[in-house]
Model the fold of this input.
Amino acid sequence: MIDRDIFEDLFVLEVTNNHLGNLERGLEIVRQHSRIVRFNNVRAAIKLQFRDIDKFIHKDFRERSDIRYIRRVTDTKLAKIHYETLVENIRKNGCIPMATPFDETSVDLCVEFGMPIIKIASADSDDWVLIEKIASTRKPVIVSIGGLSQKDLDDLVTFFANREIPLAINHCIAAYPHEDSECELNQIDFLKNRYPDNTIGYSCHEYNDWTTSIMMAYAKGARTFERHIDINTDGVEIAKYSSLPYQIDTWFKAFQKGKLFCGRSGRERKLPLARETEYLNSYIRGVYAAHDLPEGHQLEQEDVYLAIPLQKGQISCRELMLGKYGHKLIKPCVKDQAIDINMIDTPYVHDERLHKIIEERGL
Done:
């Protein structure tokens, strides 16, 4: 059985390129968001993105400033030693260091830095050269599946299952940002039903709300969550899909409230609250004698009637057994008297726990 606990209630805070190639800005992002993590007492990873840019971008295109993606990754390049500093700082601030590698060399960097989890981006969820390399590390993987076909997703899940590598699957709308109406949270139900052995998560890029989707996603069974993060201390324009520390604080609190509302595991029947039992007991009908009943009498339908209130020690409609194999009186009972547990021959008398429940419930 594959251990999935590493993904349980895990928040992934995606720095992406919001450090802007500036180590100090990156450290400030870590500092501000890790404080919010600690204040909310949640388990969180702060995730970086690794690219070996000299190989990742073809040499003839590295200077193409008109291509947005190329310009974004070249303008925000950090040296390896700076990434090492960020990783150390993430650990010191009580968070889990994590990364998305976009090429094979970057996978080696994840191993060198001791990343406990590797992320596969939506764009690489069917890049089998990269996926093979990631799998060779044997590290747990979270994959976002925005735009991925059903067949490719089935293949991906089977691939990691055959290698017994823990895989979490993030429902994701790979539009940055996307509208609330595009969240498609019912996909979490689909993923849970189709892949019951995998942790299902939600990587969100909506920008109008930090409460509704996470509460709904948790209620539907998502157990790992991802958002992009940034800071607003230096006048830099913030991407709509990136969250500021106060918004992440709202997000965490919404998660805690959603978890509170959902309560215990959905895999087993809950135990009733004590006051719930007390309330319901006030509505249970007790068993009363319809006429005088002698000792040794076998109770039949015409011998009893049911009415409220239920009294302490009285048997109720729940325990009443009539006829040949039903209750026999071991003490007499007069008309309209409550038939007490100690008046009848019943297995409940010999079960201390059940006997105690009957003695203590009711008026």
The chain has a mean pLDDT of 94. The CA atoms of residues 329 and 344 lie 4 Å apart. The first strand starts at residue 10 and ends at 14.
